[in-house]
Structures
1.
Amino acid sequence: MDGSAAGTAAGHNRLNGRFTAGNTEYRARQQRLAERVRQLTLDYDPSPSQLALLPIIARHLDDALRGRSAERRVRAGNAANRLLRLIPRRKPQEEPLSPTDFEREMWAGLKGDKSEL
């Protein structure tokens, strides 16, 4: 079945199924994929060669969320998982000391009290 669950896809000509003038679905998909690639870049630490895989993984993840059939969603999700296993996750950065922790350490150092460190 081509189109949404209601029977026709928004922004498509009913006669030939092509995009109508002014359709924004193509642009919306491109923006979704660009945002997904940006998020993957932040979450993972890809090498330069693995960086080329991120747009492909983004397409698979988008298909896993928006695929029409359950089979297509599962296949896309599995493909994305297989490719993501190849890329190491970015290590969480240590959070800097909050102002209160910093002040507490400063006062402890000034007092000469080493029990709070």
Note: The chain has one domain: 25-111.
2.
Amino acid sequence: MSELTKYWVFAAVCLVVALVILRLILRERLMLQGSVSFLSFLAVLGLMAIFPEQTTRVSRAMGFTLLSNFFFAIAVAVLSLLHLRALVTVSKVHMRTVALTQELAIVQERLDRSLAERKSGEAA
């Protein structure tokens, strides 16, 4: 239990950040879909802080001699995945923006044709 008292500050910071993100989700400032990955990442980091002995065992089994190197590798891997997810989301938004722009141009062309037909019908 003495190991837990060493790392409680890190676990508390993870919890505070998670609570801030949950508050932003509830106030509809963030979308739940994009935030679940980040909340999962915070949960994993919090568990690593709460259970350092098990984290050390896992890191040694994976070939890391220092726990800090394992933590850094996990953080880089997860942040890379979060970045990839953000890129996918941005790409989807971009494609949807292009499609909406094209649809708007089609609707505008139809409106212009309809107005032109109406004017020619009134003139005759």
Note: The mean pLDDT is 87.
3.
Amino acid sequence: MNIITVCMSGSVSAQAEFTFDLDEDDSFVWEVKELNIYAFEKTFGFEPAFEKGDKTRRTIRDIDEDPDGWELSVEFWDYKDEFDEDGTIITEVVYDDPADYKDNIFIPTPVNDYLEELPDHDSSYVVQGASVDKRETKYTATREYDQRGVLVLEEYVDDDEILLVRVEATFRIIPMGNYFIGIIALSVISIIFVMIKKKKFVIKKS
């Protein structure tokens, strides 16, 4: 199931060399950052079921091994749902064969290796690293994944290069996680220490 429900649906894929890196209780929120209602209606023929600023959420409740990959029990909140209320439980399968990729929200890792195999089974896909462009009749859809295999950006652009809608994740990963934060903090402290030390040894001219 796509983040932006237009007229498509999805599942995921991978092979024996791919793994699934998410855990139970991992939660993800996406927000509609840009929306051109007029162009959207003109392209798709109906009004969007969301507005700019609306959010949708998914929380993984259970992960089971599946002969074709991994079966997820996911609590799902649509764009107009209240997050403080219970969501709807849905099932999503993350397949371990790239040939089963259908514009999915969750995919196996390593992401780049997984996506590189997509053009082999569908020439409409153009892959650049962790980003996938898919050419449709009236528009191009772009989907970008993070290093864990989670969709972090989904946008649609029409033939006149007008942005129809863009949805972005609110959980972008910081490179190397807390380790990266620790390095930055240590670097800042070191710079401050050096500056203070230099200041102490400054010889004032009379």
Note: The chain has a mean pLDDT of 82.
4.
Amino acid sequence: MRHTTYAPALALLLAACGGGGGSAGTGTTPPAPPAGTGARLDAYVGTWASSCAAHAIDTAVIARAPGSSTALTIAVTTTYYGNTACTGDVIATQTWSAPATATYGGTVSSSVVPTAGAAPQAASVDKVTAQLPQRSVTLTGTYVSHKIVDAQPNWCIDYAGSTVCVPDRLYPAENAPFDGLAILGNDLVEVKSNGTNYDAVERFTKR
């Protein structure tokens, strides 16, 4: 769910990946909850935090979408730290003007590859169509400045002799880079179908 631009490449939620539930191997599909209840989505509601990656931790607040029994909203805030262990002083906080939505599309028994090269783990995957709306980004913090880079406005984080910038523009609506949600142990995992099973996109622990 990470949709930051701390590294040169746009990550996770900003990635231009297709949405919609892809095929998930040959496992038996368990019965879905009755239409209109969206009962399986309740397991994902709450506040979740990612592990530290490139100075940053994502916090995802997941809620039932207003007026829908089969959709979730996913609002992500990214907190940047001055060191790679994500401890000590917070140097910047990134927020988006609108959350992503994930609409339930059925459940499959499959497996999830938690990291590249790792053994797949059996999982019940809730397929979703995940969408990012048209949105803007804002960064705040002592180490944040607003600059013109290549004739375009940017939010920039300046610290330790380096600068990392996020374009300050209107981002178009697009598919999110995951097409399923699963619970592995006590963790929430956003997953993407690879045609055989699912690859983990980002993993969160409940707060």
Note: The CA atoms of residues 60 and 76 lie 4 Å apart.
